[in-house]
Amino acid sequence: xxxxxxxxxxxxxxxxxxxxxxxxxxxxxxxxxxxxxxxxxxxxxxxxxxxxxxxxxxxxxxxxxxxxxxxxxxxxxxxxxxx
Length: 83
Hints:
The chain has a single domain (2-78), classed as 3 Solenoid (UDP N-Acetylglucosamine Acyltransferase, domain 1), CATH 2.160.10. The protein is built from no helices and 14 strands. It has strands at residues 2-3, 8-10, 13-14, 19-20, 25-27, 30-31, 36-37, 42-44, 47-48, 53-54, 59-61, 65-66, 71-72, 78-80. The strands form 3 sheets. It has a 5-stranded parallel beta sheet, with no helix packed on it. A 5-stranded parallel beta sheet has the order 2-5-8-11-14, with no helix packed on it. The N and C termini lie far apart (31 Å). The mean pLDDT is 93.
């Protein structure tokens, strides 16, 4: 896995080949093999599938699940399963 400068990983699993961008925050989450987490993205209790791509500035909170190979663009959108 590759972790960008200033990224915070807390109580999370980052699988082989995953890339966590600069300043991202990953808390109590699972990031699948080969997945990409964009800069300044926030994950809380999220599961990101293998080879999924999450663009910069997104927030995925409260148990959101992203299927393998799905791409979410850099739209700074907040996704929550509580909504």
